[in-house]
Amino acid sequence: GQSLEQPSEVTAVEGAIVQINCTYQTSGFYGLSWYQQHDGGAPTFLSYNGLDGLEETGRFSSFLSRSDSYGYLLLQELQMKDSASYFCAVPYNQGGKLIFGQGTELSVKP
Amino acid sequence: KAGVTQTPRYLIKTRGQQVTLSCSPISGHRSVSWYQQTPGQGLQFLFEYFSETQRNKGNFPGRFSGRQFSNSRSEMNVSTLELGDSALYLCASSLDPQGELFFGEGSRLTVL
User: Fold this and answer.
1) Are the C-beta atoms of residues A92 and A3 closer than 8 Å to each other?
2) For residue A44, which residues of chain B lie inside 8 Å, CB to CB?
3) Please, what is the Cα angle at A74 between A68 and A76, to 5 degrees?
4) Cα torsion at B6, A103, B95, B70 (round to 10°)?
């Protein structure tokens, strides 16, 4: 089956850089996605990695190493509004079923 | 462009009752999926529909069911509610099953 592991909590200060790691076990691999969720609201899509390497979107970057079954989300120039839960997710198959990690709660301090 | 709309946003039921939750996807999106979110279990997949066909189903008992209509709107139903069904139920739509998911704000169900 599929499973994902990520840290439950991370704390950082404004302006800093933080990395949220995700390791996964899958029977097949169809990419790794990241979602952000503020206070139990609607999760929003941040990034997707289908191939090894780094994807950059503004202050956020995501990295994937398929050989290590590992990825991370990098948040730069942290802002207070980045305080949220971050989830990594992998598709179960080529359909629309996503398996989510338990989420990492990021707290950004002034 | 309107986002994913879920109704009702909040509801309170008692054990043994049943509940129906509704989801209107983004216009043009034919794939709709449902997730249950609880503090202890995180985001767990319930079902996914594409063009009115259920393509994937999660590991939930038969009390949880869903359907999708020809206009892509979707409903999920939970019968014989249990205390453990208290959760945030999230609906997500996408252009295609492998695409980026757009989530609604969710329906927060409390079972007393």
Assistant:
1) no
2) 103
3) 160
4) -40
Residue with tokens 């329906």: B107
Q: Is B70 on the interface with A (CB under 8 A)?
A: no
pLDDT, tens only, A5-55: 999 999 999 999 999 999 999 888 889 999 999 987 999 999 999 999 999
For residue range A47-100, what is the model confidence (pLDDT) as tens digits?
999 999 999 989 999 999 999 999 999 999 999 999 999 999 998 877 778 899
Q: Using CB atoms, which residue from A30, A43, A103 is nearest to B103?
A: A43
Nearest to A22 by CA among A74, A78, A84: A74
d(CA A55, CA A36): 16
Determine the Cα–Cα distance for residues A79 and A12; give it in Å rounded to an integer. 10
Q: How far is CA A21 from CA A18, A26, A73, B91, B95, in A?
A: 10, 16, 7, 26, 28
Tell me the residue type at B99.
G
- Tell me, yes or no, if A91 comes closer than 8 A to chain B by beta carbon: yes
Closest residue to B48, CB basis, from A30, A95, A102: A95
B14: Cα separation from own chain's centroid: 19
Q: How far is B60 from chain A (nearest CA, A)?
A: 14
Q: How far apart are CA A99 and CA B67, in angstroms?
A: 21
